[in-house]
Amino acid sequence: MRRQILKLFRRLGFFHTRIAGRNVFWKRRGDEKLYVNALRDAEVYQRHAIFSLDDLGEEQCLSRLTMLAHGIEKALSLSAVKKPFFLAKFPILIQLAAKVVDNGWNTGDERFIMAQDAAVAYFKFHEGSPEVDAFREEAQRVFGNLETFTQSPLIELMPAESVVSFQDFKAFCHSRHSVRSFSDQTVPREDLTSAIELALRTPSVCNRQPWKVKILDEREEIASAFKLQNGNTGFGHEVRTLLLTGADMRSFLGPEERNEPWIDAGMFSMSLVYALHAKGISSCTLNWCVDAERDAQLRKLLGLPEWFRVTMFICVGYPREGASVAASRRRQLNDFIL
Fewer CB within 10 Å of terminal CB in the chain, N or C? Predict the structure, then answer.
């Protein structure tokens, strides 16, 4: 039967190969590379993302806890909160918190503490509810005495107004340019980490904060990484500091979130570029658009874990005196509004 199906597809004009043990068909010559890379990316994502509550590792468990705790946080920030809410998911929060405790994992992690804060707020909001009180005993076992726990606030009042005027922010945005002519001056590590810390204010899916940054400041290491990247010709040799930004795939849930690492890491990268600019540090963002084989080469070269989805290179430094930048004419506003 399988041979007959293969013959039928070939007669219909489809090309065929086996990739990772699967039969793959495509209609045009040259499409094979697309399918090979898509399947390899899918296999890596499947190994690390969350597809069920079974066999969760510590990082996956804490990420899922964050997602659940943020669900309570978001509900309490609504203008009209119904009682009871989150009844189907709250026992899952308790179950995963118990998994952290019972496995001896890090209960001092901010994500576990966030879940504890959420549990306290949830019980307080549903005071006297028998449906919610049914979970109290197990919650006490997992989190300790909820009555004496000093809870951090889950919600706060919205600031009355922005602390930066639109005109000031407009001037700030217009003053930033991609620099491709760097001096020999070294960027202090504390300035880098200050900018990264500020970029942590970036929004992320369900507040999971999946971002990761790899800092390279050895010339040979930077040069080796640049050999695998296609956009640094003519200036890569001047870069003294290179940041690799990306996301932890263990933070994401199921096939629906397969593209989320690029979204969250992309938003974080822009925040980081602005934070660097605010510190007087220039940057140039470089794409990491490569096939799966080259991506694996970078991981091996730098000893990067497979769960780290590299999304961007950011060259960091101070411009040479009198350096020029690309004027980069911008398209009209109407081109972007659908």
Answer: C
Q: SS3 of 212, please?
A: strand
Q: H helices of 210-285, where?
A: 219-226, 260-278
Dist. CA 212–CA 309, nearest whole Å: 9
Distance, CA of 129 to CA of 66 (rounded, Å): 24
pTM: 0.89
Residues 286, 231 contacting (CB under 8 angstroms): yes
- The tens-digit pLDDT sequence of the chain (338 residues) is 556 655 655 665 566 566 556 666 655 555 667 777 888 898 999 999 999 998 899 999 999 999 999 999 999 999 998 889 999 999 999 999 999 999 999 999 999 999 999 999 999 999 999 999 999 999 999 998 888 777 788 888 888 788 899 999 999 999 999 999 999 999 999 999 999 999 999 999 999 999 999 999 999 999 999 999 999 999 999 999 999 999 999 999 999 999 999 999 999 999 999 999 999 999 999 999 999 999 999 999 999 999 999 999 999 999 999 999 999 999 999 999 99
Residues 291 and 153 sit within 8 Å (Cβ to Cβ)? no
From its phi and psi, is residue 193 left (phi > 0), alpha (psi between -120 and 50) or beta?
Answer: alpha
